[in-house]
Design brief:
Elements (H helix, E strand, L loop, with lengths): L3 E6 H10 L1 E2 L1 E3 L2 E2 H4 L2 E2 L3 H11 L7 E6 L1 H6 L3 E6 L9 E6 L3 E2 L3 E7 L7
Antiparallel strand pairs: 1-6, 2-9, 3-4, 5-8, 6-10, 7-8
Pfam families: DUF952
Protein name: DUF952 domain-containing protein
InterPro entries: DUF952
Length: 118
């Protein structure tokens, strides 16, 4: 399986580590509300940052998910079109089945904000 990653606000990830689960699907939307966790393949991270996070001024982290730990937690990865009504649109991984246990994250790295140079 391809590497699956998720962009998170650093403070939400910090809170998740204290609580044991991460419950945010995407900016301002919970997994419960969306029905799944939004994720990306590595080549989709930069375009996703530029499109959806360009106005975020809070620290971000890039979470890399562990497929085995996801399966053990009863979570399912589905690769689906970004636009459900357009099956030809770009396909992204979505994680279904509930909140994300923090032990299903194999790494968390600081992520530079769009428009900044390393």
């Amino acid at each position: 399986m391809q590497t699956i990653q998720h962009i998170a606000l650093a403070d939400e990830w910090d809170e998740a580590q204290r609580e044991g689960t991460y419950a945010t699907s995407t900016l301002g939307v919970s997994i419960d509300a969306a029905g799944y966790l939004h994720a990306s393949f590595p080549e989709q991270v930069r375009p996703t940052l530029e499109r959806f996070y360009s106005d975020v001024d809070a620290p971000l982290v890039l979470l890399t998910l562990d497929p085995e730990a996801l399966a053990e937690a009863g979570l399912e990865v589905r690769v689906e079109p970004a636009a459900p009504d357009d099956p030809e649109s770009e396909r992204f991984p979505h994680v279904y089945g509930g909140v994300l246990p923090v032990n299903a994250v194999s790494s968390a790295e600081s992520l530079e904000l769009p428009g900044t140079q390393a």
